[in-house]
Amino acid sequence: MIRFIQIFIIFCFWGFLSNSLAQSVTVSKEMSIRNDVAYDVIGVVADNILLYRDKGTEKVVEIFDQNMKHLFDREITLEKKSADVYAIVPQDTCFTIIYGYRDRREYFMRAQKYDQFGLMIDSVTFVGGVVDFKLENFRYETSEDRSKTLLFTTRKNDLLYTYMIDNNEMTLAWAKESKLIGLNVRKDFRGALVSDRGEVNVLFEIDNSKYDRKKHHLMLLGFDHNDGFFENKFTFDNKLTVDLELGFDNVNRRIIIAGLVSEDSEYNATGFFHLTKNIDELEEVTQIEDQDFDVKLLEELYGKKLSKKKKLNDFVTRDIVLRGDGGFLLLTEMNKEYYRRSAFNGGTRGGGGFNGGGRGWVDIYNEDVIVFAVRPDGTEHWKKILYKKQFSQDDGGVFSSYFLFKTPSRLRIIYNDEIKRNNTVSEYVMDPLGNFERNSLLSTEYQNLKLRFQDAVQVSSDVLLVPSERNFKLSLVKIEY
To answer: Phi-psi region for residue 117, left (φ > 0), alpha (ψ -120 to 50) or beta?
Structure first.
C-alpha cells in the first residue's frame, strides 16, 4: 500500500496541482468475452502487462507490452480443468495462482508460479490426498508487501478454516481449524486482513440490531503460527453500526477500525467512530468512542431544511487510507438501490399480488463521497465532501463508484461522470490538508470505452490499468500521469 504522507510545509495548493493534469491514455485491442466466466487484471509483471481470463475449462493469460500492444496469449494448465482458482497474486517478477481440485474422493490444494511470459517456474502442493474434504468457496487476502496470502472459509456456521501461504518461499506456513463458540461465522463476519509478518486478524460483528442494541459489539480474533487465537472485544455506547472498514498499519503495527454509527437504525448514520491501537497493546475489552455529525457537514450536504434530520442517508464506508504520521482517512460514499416492477411487464395477478413471472428493474445511485481525516492521537483533523452523481440500471453498479489512486503526496478519486456510452471521466485531486481540485481526465466519446474503475489496478505511482467492457468485448486501458 502506498502511504498518503502528512506534509507540514505550507505551500500554494494550486501550484502543487499545476503538473497533475497531463496524462496519456493507451488502449489495447478488443477481446471477445461472450463465453468467458471471469477475468482478472494481474497488472505489471517484470516488463509485461498481464490479464487473466477464465473461459471455463480453459484458463488463459493475455500478455501485452508497455505500449498495450498484444504480444500473445498463453494457456495456463492446471492439474484439473475443473479446478477452482482461489487467488491470483502478482509480485514484481512473477505471479502465483493458488487453486484446489478434486480427484475422485481426494482433495488437493496447489500453487503454481509463472514468469512475465506465462511460463511456469515453480509449483507446490499444499494439501494433498485428503479424503472427503468438505470445504468450498475459499476467500483470500494478501499482505501489503504481497509476501503472504491468507485463504479462509467456513463450515457449519461455527468453524473457521485458515491457511497461511508464504508466496516467496512457496510453502504453507500454517493451517488451522477453529471452532468459534457464540459466533455465527458466516452471518457475523465483517472483514479479514493479514500483516506482512503473516499475522491474521478477523473481525466479527454481533447483535447489530435495534432490539439487541445494548449487547452490540465487535469481536476481533487474531491468529498466527501458535496454537489458539487472541480475542479482543470492542463495545459501543448503545449505538448500532451502519458500516465499517478494517485496516492495518504495518509500519506502526496498528489495527484500525472505523465506520458509521446510528442511534436507532442500521441504515442511516448519525455519527462516525474509529479506533487505532498497536496490535500488541489491545486490551481484552475496549470501549469505542463515537461522535455525532456536526450540523455544518449536514447543511453542506443536504441544505439547512433537510439537515434537521441529523442523519447521513444511505452512506457506506469504502476505504481506509493510512497517513505517514500514523493517522488515517476514512472514505464513505452514498449508495442506494431501488427495486421496481413494470406495470405492463410485471406478471399476472393472483393470490395476494404479483407472482414471480414478471421482470423487475434495479435503479442504482452512487453519489457524493465524504472524506474524514483523523490525526494519530484520534482527534478529527478535517472532513470534506466530494460531489458526484452516478445513476445506472440493472448493471450491478459495476461502472459506478470510484477508484482510489494513491501517491505519497496526493490522492486521486477517479470516476465516471455518468454511466452511459459517451462519458467524461473526472477526478478529485486532494492534498494532505484536505484541499482539492476537480479535473476532467478524459472523454470516452467515440472511443468504444466503458470503464470499470472498481476493477482498476494501480501498478505504480503514476500508472493505472482499467478494464473497459462493452457489448461483450473487453479491452485494457492504461492511464499514465
So the answer is: alpha
Angle formed at CA 171 by CA 108 and CA 248, multiple of 5 degrees: 110
Judged against a pLDDT cut of 60, whether residue 328 lies above it is answered with yes
Q: Are residues 219 and 316 in the same domain?
A: yes
The secondary structure of 214-231 as a DSSP string is GG-EEEEEEE-SSSS-EE
Q: Are residues 285 and 155 in the same domain?
A: yes
Which residues make Cβ contacts (< 8 Å) with residue 104, sequence separation at least 6? none
Residues 453 and 383 in one domain: no
- The residue among 77, 96, 76, 94 whose CA lies nearest residue 86 is 96
Any idea what the Cα angle at residue 37 is, between residues 101 and 76, rounded to 5°? Answer: 55
| Residue 454 phi, psi dihedral angles, 5° rounding | -65, -25
Angstrom distance (rounded) from CA 236 to CA 215: 9
Task: Let me know whether 407 and 382 are in one domain.
Answer: no
Mean pLDDT of 133-152: 93
Domain limits for position 187:
144-325+375-388
Q: Are residues 284 and 409 in the same domain?
A: no
Sign (positive or negative) of CA dihedral 212, 218, 224, 226: negative
Per-residue model confidence as pLDDT tens digits over 231-266: 999 999 889 999 999 999 999 999 999 999 998 887
As given in the structure block, the three cell numbers for residue 122 are 515453480
Residue 308 shares a structural domain with residue 221: yes
**Are 303 and 296 a contacting pair, CB within 8 Å?**
no
Give, as one character, the DSSP assignment of residue 186.
H
Which helix (H) or strand (E) is 150 found in, with range?
strand 148-155
295 in the same domain as 159: yes
Q: Which three cell numbers mark 314?
A: 444511505
Q: Is residue 360 a part of any domain in this protein?
A: no
Query: Lowest-confidence range among 202-211, 277-286, 290-299, 303-312?
Result: 303-312
Q: Is residue 68 part of a domain?
A: no
Lowest-confidence pick of 20-24, 65-69, 177-181, 363-367: 20-24
Dump the DSSP string for 366-393.
EEEEEEEEE-TTS-EEEEEEE---EEEE
Residues 403 and 383 in one domain: no
pTM: 0.90
- Residue 50 falls within a domain, yes or no? no
